[in-house]
Design brief:
The chain is mostly helical. Helix 2 runs parallel beside helix 4 and helix 8 runs antiparallel to helix 9. The two termini are 44 Å apart.
Amino acid sequence: MLFNQKGYKALLPSINMAFERIEIHKIKIEDYLKSFRENPNINEEEKKDVEEFIRLGKLGAINKRKKLSDSRCAKFLYILRISLEHLGKNTKDLTLKDVEKFDTELSNDVIKNRTTNQNLAQNTKIEIRKILKIYLRWKLKNDVQKYNELTEWWDTTYKHRTPEFLSEQENIRLFDSCKNVNEKFIVSVYF
């Protein structure tokens, strides 16, 4: 065992590094905020509120004293852009009908990915609801009754898909088509 002068294990710093998050994308939150500010489809008051929301999120004042990372802030900005563009009005002026219409269009694939024009994944739709719900909780903190009316009925639980498996006949056909013992072993272990 290796010890340094103070008697501590010399390998201890390397063990602690295993628990540090390694960022693979360099997120510049300023670029995301600039792009959000320049969006003509969101009103100016809402843009200022979202910027304040992100600032407070980075401080840990939004989500139960958990500070938001730059990547999470970027995701919040992306999701809020989708929601606020589609809603088309200040969130303080939202009615239950507006939110129901938004949720219906989100569920029925009217709202699509802007770059690929493909339907949004089911978990993305749930993430949109969750982030909009967090934002509305912050924005309507003085009007809890309105917040509850607008959001309490939303389904924000993730749907876990069961992976598709090969049928027994497909497994047998795969096993029979193996060319050697090694392939047969791998197929028999997997299936």
